[in-house]
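Email to the structure team, subject: Carnitine deficiency associated protein model.

Hi all, the expression group asked for a predicted structure before they design truncation constructs. Nothing fancy, just the tokens so they can compare against earlier work. One-line instruction: predict Carnitine deficiency associated protein, return tokens.
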Amino acid sequence: MFKRKLTALGYHNTDNLNIQSQGEFHALVSWLEDQKIRHYKIEDRAGLRQIDSPDWLKSYETYLNDVGCPHKSSNHRAVADYLLALAVRLEYGDNVDKFKEASTEKLKEVVKSSAPTVVNENPLDNLNFESQEFKQGVQALAQYLNVAQHPDHLVTLQGVCSLVRERLSVEGQERVKEHKQAKPFPLKESTLGFESGDPVLNHATKVLQLLYVHDLRDLQTRINEAIVAVQAITANPKTDTRLGKVGR
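Reply from the structure team: attached below.
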């Protein structure tokens, strides 16, 4: 509760101070008067300095009355808060020019300087993507995976990444297994719908039609997934069929 004020005043025990402890409370009051508040002359502070004396309580009550403390002497927490606030105010008054120099920018600099430095250990940050060695590595990788090469080696690298993600990843391997279990489509038995007179052209046209249908099915699957996702957000399971309303 008092840690910030104690720290600002430079008190030696900021973390473990126990206000309910008679010895620690006596020591705090004596220290505040002796070092920060200084309401009494030095020779008049003897009563508060003798924290183990049986007469300390009498000196303490007189002191609270002299500094204008509105709280009862038995309420240690309230008294400590009052004396700490008084000490902070007097400390600021004695060092106005010093505290005027403080600013938000300087505080940020202090926080930044005291913050731990985060070391990035990502090995990719140390790569030179434009070096000849890197370009040759991309070229060799593309040749190994049978990926068509682009004049821009970074575009080629994107193609390699797509292949690895779609075919060589765990999910890609599962999709490949599913495709292997599928039955081959009887391309020769399928009808084109028209005849070009060229068997090679007819075969190529059938392949293009199948690829187009495959893309349409994939698009339809994604559309269905999007619809389901939207319905999960907007649909209201408590549908009132009597009103003929579904959802919100």
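The chain has eleven helices and no strands. The chain has three domains: 3-114, 130-182, 187-239. Ping us if the truncation boundaries need rechecking.
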